[in-house]
Structure formats: C-alpha cells, structure tokens
C-alpha cells in the first residue's frame, strides 16, 4: 500500500488497521507513511516533525523497518481544485477528508524541510541502516521486486 497511516492512532478512511498493515508486511508489501495532516493523530497545525517520526517508529515496531518508507502525499503548489479532487474517493466520489486550510506539521511545511526528518531520526539514534531503509532503500527494493 502507499500513503497510509495507522488507524489505531487516528480513525480515518485512508488509515489502515494494525491487522491490515501486518498482512501487507507478511506478503512482502510496503507502507509509505504520509505527512498528510488529516491522517495524523494530532492536527497538522499542532503536529511536528517529531510526531511524524513517532508514526514511523510505530509502524516500524508493528511491521518491521524493511516494510516502511515515506510517502509524502505532498501536493505543494497545486491549485485548490486539485486539493478538492484528491479529497474524494476516486472510485465513487465520496468525500474522504474535510478540512479548511491545509497545514502541515511544523518542520515539514515545505518539501525543502524534509532534511528535518533525517535530523529527527539521528536525534533518536536510529541506526544508519534503518535511516537508509526508511528514506529510500525500501522504495528501491519494492520497485526492483515489482518491475
């Protein structure tokens, strides 16, 4: 799966249950944890880069670091009409998310701030192998396996 977060941390139609996430990993799958504010346990305007890394850690503890990566879900610079489109289920048009102003976690408000994720991982003393996996190696493995 891609661009999902943990349903046990925040109830949302796009977030997955722990059982579903474990099934994905058990089949060799991959989960891209997103910074999309409505999927966070806290609202985007009060969340921080550390809250995002908390979600990564939860997911790693649940399914293993070889099945976790970052799926930014960033659409910075897109018009509001695009935001309206992505807030709806593309299969049947039902609205998935309602929000006013789109705010991202402090320290991740722009794509240029993603080095802050690396810094937060280092602050938590993540092993370099874990950082490399989550920041890109797991994506490369998935793409090699699929293509």
Structural account:
The chain has one domain (18-146): Alpha-Beta Barrel (TIM Barrel). Helix content is 40%, strand content 4%. The model has no long low-confidence stretch (mean pLDDT 82). The protein has a two-stranded parallel ribbon with strand order 1-2. It has helices at residues 18-26, 49-63, 80-86, 115-123, 128-146; strands spanning 31-33, 68-70. It is built from five helices and two strands, in the order αβαβααα. It has 147 residues and is mainly α.
**Mean pLDDT over all positions:** 82
Compute the gyration radius: what is it? 15 Å
| Annotated CATH homologous superfamily | Metal-dependent hydrolases
Q: What's the CATH class label? A: Alpha Beta
Number of domains: 1
Strand order of the largest sheet: 1-2
CATH architecture tag: Alpha-Beta Barrel
The CA-CA distance between the termini, in Å, is 16 Å
SSE-based structural type: mainly alpha
Counted beta strands = 2
Low-confidence stretches: none
CATH topology: TIM Barrel
- The ordered string of helix (H) and strand (E) elements is HEHEHHH
Name the shape in a single word. globular
Residue share in helices?
Answer: 40-55%
Summed up, the helix count is: 5
| β-strand amount | under 5%
**How can the largest sheet be summarized?**
2 strands, parallel
